[in-house]
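Researcher: Final request for today, and then I'll write up notes for the group meeting. The sequence and the SMILES for 2-acetamido-2-deoxy-beta-D-glucopyranose follow.
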Amino acid sequence: MMTYCLVLFLSLLLCFGFCAELRNCELRGQKWPVPYKRFDYRPDVDSYCQALYPFCPTGDPDGRIPYIRESDVISVYRLQTPVWEFKYGDLLGKMHIMHDAIGFSSSETGANFTMEWYELFQLGNCTFPHLRPEVNAPFWCNQGAACFFEGIDDLHWSQNGTLDKIGEISGNQFNDMAKWVQEDNRTGIYYETWTVRSDLSPNATVWFESYDCSQFVHRTYRKLAELGAKLSSRTQTNYTKIYLYSGEPTYLGNDSAIFGQPALKNLAMDIKKFYYTFRPHQSFVDIALSLLAAYEKVVLNKMFYLYYNFEYWQLPMKYPYIQITYEEVPLPSD
Ligand SMILES: *[C@@H]1O[C@H](CO)[C@@H](O)[C@H](O)[C@H]1NC(C)=O
Ligand SMILES: *[C@@H]1O[C@H](CO)[C@@H](O)[C@H](O)[C@H]1NC(C)=O
Ligand SMILES: *[C@@H]1O[C@H](CO)[C@@H](O)[C@H](O)[C@H]1NC(C)=O
Ligand SMILES: *[C@@H]1O[C@H](CO)[C@@H](O)[C@H](O)[C@H]1NC(C)=O
Ligand SMILES: *[C@@H]1O[C@H](CO)[C@@H](O)[C@H](O)[C@H]1NC(C)=O
Ligand SMILES: *[C@@H]1O[C@H](CO)[C@@H](O)[C@H](O)[C@H]1NC(C)=O
Ligand SMILES: *[C@@H]1O[C@H](CO)[C@@H](O)[C@H](O)[C@H]1NC(C)=O
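Model: Predicted protein-2-acetamido-2-deoxy-beta-D-glucopyranose complex:
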């Protein structure tokens, strides 16, 4: 009897040890920041998602980029302007929420082009989902994509923002970049507003990296540098970052795992309640009540549900919770 108990005890101990080990392994195996997932192709957009402003109205519908003669010299411009969404007037600009793009102009033909990456259905739709009675899981209209079109609207960029020449590239380098942009656009399909990090210190752990217009601009600059371009700016190059601060995030699961199983219905309810707070608003009373509810959830309960790679994570929030900065990111060849 005694030995039996001992064996049982030991195996329990072993099992717990093993399980704990497994859990730790899983934790240790988690790479931070969580890599942004690339897809094989871009899925069709659900007809529920309707753009307030059409996406890329003057761009080529198939995203074609004109071929430039090898001997051409192309000027590259850094473009930046405050985001203006009519509901908020220029409030977003005052908070330094900026939109970034890249300009190109050909010295042989004089033609010029703008290239940018942005939300198909506006920023709010990429930040918070819709709760639809007929669909169990929160519904996201969160695609983002690259838009390439002819022309640079000098006034639009220079009046309240930046239009700054940062270098010259050859026609060859331009054509190579164009191929890369199309591939990047095909495989990187959704917009992510938040950067999540552990604290304010410069060597904080970054749990999740945003995927937005400025990240696209940085990726393109890095690609151009890789192709041999020299880029430099006389002025500081600052970009908007929207941070969440949290302890180590916990993985929760994807839509079918959470919203397709009765076993997780409490979690499913809680996620929906969380996002209900951030739904698109009707009245000022609603906004006031929702701000209070958001404060309670994020600051008092220290809780945030993040949707990343079409999967949910729970963030144990901490001070200062949310922060918008406008900070310098040097050009790759500076
Ligand atoms: C967000 O998506 C909804 C639903 O498709 C749409 O009605 C709305 O115009 C979109 N844009 C904004 C800014 O809410
Ligand atoms: C990127 O993808 C979007 C959505 O499919 C498309 O409208 C756009 O033309 C593409 N842009 C480029 C540069 O390939
Ligand atoms: C782009 O082309 C337009 C039309 O020719 C011109 O007005 C504008 O100054 C050009 N902008 C740049 C940055 O080359
Ligand atoms: C620049 O900002 C001013 C004041 O906010 C505004 O009236 C003007 O339309 C803006 N210009 C552009 C080109 O957006
Ligand atoms: C960076 O991290 C180290 C150890 O991880 C820590 O001792 C140091 O204080 C941190 N530096 C800053 C500026 O926070
Ligand atoms: C969702 O997660 C489950 C396991 O947690 C996995 O089997 C399934 O393939 C995932 N679904 C999608 C669409 O990724
Ligand atoms: C740009 O960023 C630097 C360093 O990140 C900061 O000191 C500076 O104040 C920023 N400029 C503006 C206009 O915010």
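Model: Residues 33-39+52-328 form one domain. The pocket of 2-acetamido-2-deoxy-beta-D-glucopyranose (ligand 4) is lined by residues 90, 155-156, 159-160 (CB under 6 Å).
Researcher: Thanks, that's everything.
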